[in-house]
Amino acid sequence: MAENIINWYEYENQAHSEGYKVVCGVDEAGRGPLAGPVCAACVIMPENSKLEGVINDSKKLSEKKREELYDLICDEAIAYSISMVDEKVIDEINILQATFKAMKNAIDNISVKPDIALIDGNRMPPELSVEGRTVIKGDAKSISIAAASILAKVTRDRFLYQLDKEYPEYQFAKHKGYGTKLHYEMLEKYGISPVHRRSFLKKLSDLPDLKR
Questions:
Q1: How far is CA 95 from the centre of its chain?
Q2: Above pLDDT 90, what percent of the chain?
Q3: Could you please report the per-residue DSSP string of 24-68?
Q4: Do residues 106 and 41 lie in contact, with contact meaning Cβ atoms separated by under 8 Å?
Q5: Does pTM top 0.85 for this prediction?
Q6: What whole-number distance in Å separates Cα of residue 127 and Cα of residue 123?
Q7: What does the angle CA 175 – CA 179 – CA 184 come to, to the nearest 5 degrees?
Q8: What's the CA gap between 33 and 157, in Å, rounded?
Q9: Ranges of each domain in the chain
Q10: Rounded to an integer, what distance in angstroms lies between the CA atom of residue 111 and that of residue 49?
């Protein structure tokens, strides 16, 4: 059986055929973790990228490969922007709205204004400054969204490595804030830190706070 070949420019080309000249891809990382920010990236890739066929959904790549591609994407992209929304805002407005906020900030702050944004998933952020189009599993279909997924994931992981230095007892470098067995064990032992999402830890509300 012949292997399905992905046309990584299908959604970009479709937008171009409809008259949109500048197309960006938008994706996020960090919706599910118990701690730290959610991060979104917006990327405008050139036509006929040398990275076509090399870029993929960040979840399908090793950490080493993502790190390598991060620099290559930054070098080749026409423009890119990255935005993080921290745990305090997540607790205040909820994770979905915080994700939308990070996506909108990334789009608004990119140096080249896009005509349309391809958004990973099936939920469109409200009140975008540009037209938008959702692409389900876009990080495995669109080169722009895949590039954004890598920039968002690597940026957030690097930030969690910094949090690991500030709060070594939680071992953020190992689990990146996700709800692993190790992470819950550290929460039970040390309590809730200032960088944890309290709205994600309501069942653990009786744990002590780590004062810093």
A1: 13
A2: 86
A3: EEEEEE-SS-SBS-EEEEEEEPPTT-TTTTT---GGGS-HHHHHH
A4: yes
A5: yes
A6: 12
A7: 95
A8: 12
A9: 10-166
A10: 19
**152-194 residue pLDDT tens:** 999 999 999 999 999 999 999 999 999 999 999 999 999 999 9
Q: Which residues contact 114 (CB under 8 A, 6 or more apart)?
A: 22, 23, 24, 42, 44, 107, 130
What value does the mean pLDDT take over residues 71-96? Answer: 97
| Strand-pair category, 116-120 with 131-135 | parallel
| pLDDT range class, residue 4, cuts 50, 70, 90 | low
Q: Domain 10-166: give its CATH superfamily.
A: Ribonuclease H-like superfamily/Ribonuclease H (3.30.420.10)
Q: Which residues pair with 23 in a beta bridge?
A: 116
Structure tokens at 6: 């992905």
Which residues, listed in sequence order, are joined to residue 82 by a DSSP beta bridge? Answer: 41
The token duo for 110 is 């990119």
Dist. CA 181–CA 166, nearest whole Å: 21
Tokens of 115: 């005509």
